[in-house]
Amino acid sequence: MSSAGPQLRPFSYVILMLVGDRGAAPHDLARMSRQGQVYWSAATSRYYSEPKRLAELGLLAARSEPGQTHERTWYTLTDAGRRAVAAWLAEPSGFVRIQNEPAARLNAADLADDEATVVRSLRAIRPEIESQLAWLDQADEVASTLPHRERYLRLNHRLSRRLLEAFLEWLDEVERELG
User: Do 125 and 72 share a structural domain?
Assistant: First the structure.
């Protein structure tokens, strides 16, 4: 747990990072989450509730701004929020936690009526992987518009691309062995 306090969770830091120096509205955070789900996955509602909670803790400042149909809340990082992120970054990172439904399905293949059923269910991830790879191409273009984060974004994009390509190779292997 971070030295910033027990009320902060890893997802709290994700929100603080996404708000960053430029600020963001919950709608922007939810959009970023849909686009970058290869990095972090959470229910869309959490991208609306967590910034509000962080503002109550004094880590984000909130102000109302006109939106397209109604007022929206715009969040910015406070000095306390910046200190919390800095303290979190100084802590040793935990290893990645992966909730891998396809691997769980493969582990349960002995419980299926036949292996072909499992292979068919696993093939369904191929279009999603291809979609994420296409998103990474777009994200690389966007990275150049964020010079304060470009280098870090590109490093993460390369890691994500390798992970997605590894999933495609794994899927090919499953199809060859069980197909």
Answer: no
CA distance 40 to 11: 8
What range does the domain containing 19 cover?
10-90
Strand 60-65 and strand 72-77: pairing? antiparallel
C-alpha dist (Å) from residue 119 to 100, 101, 130, 161, 173: 15, 13, 18, 23, 11
Identify the sign of the CA torsion 92, 93, 95, 97.
positive
CB count in 10 Å sphere of residue 89: 11
User: Is residue 34 domain-resident?
Assistant: yes
Closest CA to 83 of 144, 35, 16: 16
How far is the C-alpha of 60 from the C-alpha of 140, rounded, in Å? 28
Give 141-171 pLDDT, tens digit per residue: 988 988 988 999 999 999 999 999 999 999 9
Per-residue pLDDT tens digits for 58-78: 999 999 988 778 888 999 999
CATH of the domain at 40: 1.10.10.10
92 CB contacts (<8 Å, ≥6 apart)? none
- Residue 168, domain member (yes or no): yes
